[in-house]
């Protein structure tokens, strides 16, 4: 009798959570290996600048409060930083489209440190506001340069991962900066008996770390802008042809920025005023926030493969609203801290994806302009809402402001889906989605 020969059993592919996690990590490793040398250097420089930025985000409002400033005054100072970023955004995009990036990065790094030092040492209102404007202007160059720089130094294969990784590096800087700053200010304050000195010296350390970005930026080999990218122009014909896209992409960003500007700059004061917490405890919660945001950001590319860029942005923004309302109405710290972390993770998951989406919808010659418009829409919304938020908090408390911000998040999410929900197409020959090049907006 002949023996029946059976083919070896084929194992069905694993579809569990562990298998998906392993697949996602493998996808990340493969994409990170594709990052160009320039992109890696820019990531390192952004990380060092991000440490400076995160320490100021954590401590500067608390420092001003210690000096005797009230919430409305603190809001105006923060608003001035947004004024600087808004005013310089379009001119910065035009400058970046005409000359080499490297000298501008080096100059901006020095000025950012110099004006941050001014914010830390000046106590006269006029000098403090002036240095805040100039700090915002110098920081704007890093924000506006990043999008076109990553587009120029990446391919479609690893691009979404690069944008998410870049934002993740900023969040990692936030974790390290918040942990170190929260402890350092307490140690210095206790040893000197002067909390103001504790805040100042900690901010000086952050400025020194930011200056170290001169090393990786100095090694970047950035070529001059290509002829396709060169000469950003603004004319009536361009706005007639592309004005609808410019309006849509900036409108949704303006709405979300307005909601964020009302409350996010004051979350350190929220924990101080509602729960009477010291700086090191607040720093711990900001570390948890940065960690949650980092996890969310790294999950972004995995979600976009299954949901697409637009649906990922809309779903995660909508999911964050219940946690925002928890912050508004709860006085239980054990509920508030997880809500604070999860809300931050969900909302910020979409930030690099939104930038990537805007770049994908842009023609190559207008990528710098679109990145500038995204920056202008965000900073101009903060320019208004931070000042309003500080005044509202001073007179009505945090609950009212958190409710208004939740409403703006909802409106932004619905607008995003209305404008862009039908643009993406599912790949017919593989996983994920893509944006057709001939899409009409």
Describe this structure in words.
This protein is mostly helical and 441 residues long. It has a single domain (34-221, 237-428), classed as MFS general substrate transporter like domains (Growth Hormone, Chain: A), CATH 1.20.1250.20. It contains 15 helices and two strands. It has helices at residues 17-33, 37-67, 71-96, 101-121, 125-152, 156-192, 195-211, 214-219, 236-263, 267-275, 279-307, 309-329, 333-361, 367-396, 398-420; strands spanning 425-426, 433-434. The protein has a two-stranded antiparallel ribbon with strand order 1-2. The chain is globular. 51% of the residues are buried.
Per-chain topology:
Blueprint: H1 17-33, H2 37-67, H3 71-96, H4 101-121, H5 125-152, H6 156-192, H7 195-211, H8 214-219, H9 236-263, H10 267-275, H11 279-307, H12 309-329, H13 333-361, H14 367-396, H15 398-420, E1 425-426, E2 433-434
Antiparallel strand pairs: 1-2
Helix pairs in contact: 1-6, 2-6, 2-7, 3-5, 3-14, 4-5, 4-7, 5-14, 6-7, 6-11, 6-13, 9-14, 9-15, 11-12, 11-13, 12-13, 12-15, 14-15
